[in-house]
Design a protein that fits this description.
single chain, 146 residues, alpha+beta, Rieske Iron-sulfur Protein, 2 domains, six-stranded antiparallel sheet, three-stranded antiparallel sheet, 9 strands, globular
């Protein structure tokens, strides 16, 4: 039997099954097809998207320049100049939650897209820029705002 004849015998059901399984590779880590950025609701009292107590041991990585943490889908980092910066964990190249902070820039572990601390793309995969957030330090409380 020739290949063309074999494919005809499979029928539409098999073609659908094969196509559907291939499309599964076009999802994010949560299985969503091309998902939108998930909105983070601000605190109704402060307006902050996220508040981090820098004395908490969970935030130890922010004590050194170049350190970062990911919380509530936000990458919060302390750049090499000692400034706090924040950006979405969702890469703008393709919707994957793979952004980290390394070498004083945001970096996507999935596609190697690179962005500076202002969110501007540094290579062709970062051309769509990255959503960043404002930070405010009050004593030991670091707040992140839209």
């Amino acid at each position: 039997m020739k290949r063309k004849e074999f494919l005809k015998t499979l029928g539409a059901g098999a073609a659908f099954a094969i196509t559907f399984s291939c499309l599964g590779g076009c999802t994010n880590d949560n299985g969503d097809f091309f998902p939108e950025e998930i909105a983070i609701e601000p605190d109704p009292d402060t307006g902050a998207l996220l508040t981090i107590d820098l004395t908490d041991t969970a935030s130890n990585s922010l004590k050194k320049n170049g350190g970062y943490l990911i919380k509530n889908r936000i990458v919060v980092a302390k750049d090499l100049n000692g400034n706090y910066v924040a950006a979405t964990v969702r890469c703008s190249h393709e919707p994957r939650d793979k952004i980290i902070f390394r070498n004083n820039e945001y970096y996507c572990k999935e596609h190697s897209a690179r962005f500076n601390t202002a969110g501007n793309g540094l290579n062709s995969k970062g051309k769509n820029n990255l959503k960043t957030y404002k930070t405010s330090l009050d004593g030991n409380l670091l707040s992140i705002f839209a």
